[in-house]
Amino acid sequence: MKEGYYEEDSDFMPYYLLQKELKQKVISYNDIKGEVRYIAGADVAYNDATKKMVGALVVLDANTLQVVEQQVHEMEVTFPYVPGLFSFREVPPLVEAFKKLQTKPDLIICDAHGMAHPNGMGMATHLGLELDIPTIGCAKSWLVGIYDKSLLGLERGATQPMMWDSKIVGVALRTQDNVKPLFVSVGHRVDLQTAIDWVLKMSPSYRQPETTRQADHLVNSVMKERMEIDFMGDEAVEEPI
Q1: May I have one GO cellular component term (predicted)?
Q2: d(CA 38, CA 42)
Q3: What angle do CA 212, 218, 221 make, to 5 degrees?
Q4: DSSP letter (8 states) at residue 159
Q5: What angle separates helix 86-100 from helix 123-131, to the nearest 10 degrees?
Q6: Which of 26, 102, 203, 231 has its CA 20 to 30 A from that of 181?
């Protein structure tokens, strides 16, 4: 897969051009101001039946990992599924959920990619630029970047750089001994080592960081609740036989 592979669909060319414009604004060095007291997890879930999605932000105390606040925003899916442009689909509900927060996070870990993306503009990077907040991409599955699996150690903290377009765009990171790696990359206003350090700190016991675990649990709970409500609503309007 070569760089620019997804740019063949001219209908979405304005969005690819916007990605290139946004990419120039990304800060890939550590620009976190002061102490990180609150750290958030971000995730989005979809209900294909109703064409709705839920974005969630869960704010944790950065030291105790206790949940401080959580907010969700439900809305219609406003952007189609287009490879390479996924952030245009997922960022809007997260921005709205962020507006509801009383406790603003100092850092956000996204269940998504950051700069380890074909166009250098994964959801974590896009969200960081939109909110002007330091963000980290921490994805469960690989997207781009070549790394040597044979050299990735089995112990917690082992890393292997991922190369894309002759640059290091992220790392494969082992967060626990003998588990599948996560794929960590800079989102915005952090450097790669800072991203690695925070993902490990947020992953004391499980493969996924606690930020992701909490955000994922919240969106899935809300989506399950919405689906049950929709089902009950449909049943309620049925005519008696």
Answers
A1: cytoplasm
A2: 13
A3: 135
A4: E
A5: 40
A6: 26
What is the tens place of the pLDDT at every residue in 153-187?
Answer: 999 999 999 999 899 999 999 999 999 999 999 99
Residue type, 223: M
CA 66 to chain centre: 20
Confidence bin at 224 (pLDDT 50/70/90):
confident
* Strand-pair category, 107-110 with 135-139: parallel
**Own/partner long-range contacts of 10-15 (Cβ < 8 Å, ≥24 apart):** 12/82, 12/85, 15/82, 15/85, 15/88
Q: Model confidence over 94-112: pLDDT tens digits?
A: 999 999 999 999 999 999 9
How many degrees, rounded to 5, is the angle at CA 74 between CA 134 and CA 38?
30
pLDDT-derived band at 229 (thresholds 50, 70, 90) equals low
Task: Give pLDDT, residue 47.
Answer: 84
Residue 233, pLDDT score: 42
Mention every residue, 6+ apart, whose C-beta is less than 8 A from residue 136: 107, 108, 109, 110, 114, 124, 184, 185, 186, 187, 190, 195, 198, 199
Among the residues of 181-209, which ranges form H helices? 192-201
**Could you tell me the strand order of the sheet in which 159-164 lies?**
67-76, 52-61, 38-47, 107-110, 135-139, 182-188, 167-173, 159-164
What domains can be seen in the chain, in order of their start residue? 21-236 (3.30.2170.10)
How far out from the chain centre does Cα 82 lie?
17
76's tokens: 């219609």
The residue among 13, 25, 103, 16 whose CA lies nearest residue 57 is 103
